[in-house]
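Fill-in record for Cyclic GMP-AMP synthase.
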Amino acid sequence: MGDQCAAARRARGSRKAPSQSSAPEPPRSHSAAAKPPARGGERAGAGRGDARPPGEHATAINPRDSPSPIDPKGATAARSRTEKGPAPSEKGSVHNGKGSAPGESNAVPSRKGAVPTRKDSARREKGAVPKTKESPARGPPAVASYCCTGTESSVGVKSGGVGARRLRDVLKTLSLGRQDTSEASENVNLLIRTLVSAIRARENSFSSIDILGTGSYYEHVKISAPNEFDIMFKMPAPRVELEQCDSSGAFYYVRLKRNPQGNNLDKFLQEDGTLAACKMLFALRNIIKEIVKSMTRTEMKVTVDKKKAGSPAITLRIGNPPMEISVDIILALEVRSQSWPASTQEGLKIEKWLGSKVKQEYKWKPIYLVPKHAKDGRVLKEDTWRLSFSHIEKDMIKNHGNTKTCCESKGVKCCRKSCLKLLKHLLDQLKTKDGNRRGLDKFCSYHAKTAFFQACVLWPDDKQWLFTDLESCFQKFLDYFLDCLNNAYLPHFFIPTHNLFSRQLIDKASSDFLSKEIKYEINNRFPIFELQN
């Protein structure tokens, strides 16, 4: 009888055992208890939620390693979701055995009373919901923000949008035809020789005048057609005293330090001793108009444009549209044997690009002063002169390499000048498309050239401008130009206190419109380059 009772008790105990373990233990948290996988031999995907250390069975689970519940309701909801599938917010968690994202737990919340792990406690203290990363505030442009690796640019536009082959095709269309260039330069040279000879004979004040070719044609960065020429009519000046007339450091009143008898500039001196820029330019303009009128139509057809307010140029046109050639004649005082003005001391930072020796050679060159009105708000100051370094700019573009053999026949070809041509072409095409609306007429090729010089200083090494990297180099150049627009800051290369993108010169609406247009072109593979002039 006792044996039968003992057997009955053992049978009842064996039937109760399943009920005690009927509630499944939660799976072990990978992030809390999993050991690093053994080297070699592990299958692909090791380290995910379904991975276990070698030799560990799926049911070998220590309840103490289970994470604590966030709250009882959450645990209940989690258990119900394990039956119905994960909630949309839990996609990526391993309730379905597919693995969790790196750093996420693959365990559902455990039942009440489980011992919390150290990691789970810390997680509960910090909060259950991970904080999203806030994008840092945008600061001023930095050199490190520009890259040529084809990654996302610093201004929020796509990089690498246009293939290098397409850019090379565009450059081919911008090359000047040899025959057209020869004919244009021949006509311009004939006109200039005629003018200089007649001016010297007619006016004693301009008897020492000479010519200096400047601008894109003489810098070999002219694009599309040889239809624009800039010629400086330079005349030597005695030692002068420069009085800065505004905060930019670019505009000055000019006084003669010594005024020897018989000086050709006597007739242009004002009562306060300053040299009248307006009088000199007006006199030269009248002489040129008289010479042009006396020219016979059989020589060539030449006309003189009306004077533009504030412009230092006397514009002549040769021939008839659309084949006419524009020639800008600019009067310039050549000042030798004098130190450059103080406003230039922090400019021309070419030591790492062209070298300290080249910089010193440039500093020994003369400076030029052209008659240009300074702006005082909306008022133009008369009889002011602006510093000009076009002769040095021409030399820097011609000898642009960090090494002497850059772009020579046996040297490595760079893409510096190609990037400058592409930016100039982009600005020209945008003006053509938009008809100079929204203030695009305020932007000129000199802005592109200044940005080019600044970019050459930012990336001084020839290896940073390889022609094989044309696409990425043009992208980083555009990124820099866009940052200048967005920050309203493009310092003059020789006079850093003179900001060419200041709000006094270019309003925010115009800058924003150009920036928007350039970003659109970048993101849409430059459809503007398909337009024909």
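KEY FINDING: Residues 14-162 have pLDDT under 50 and may be disordered.
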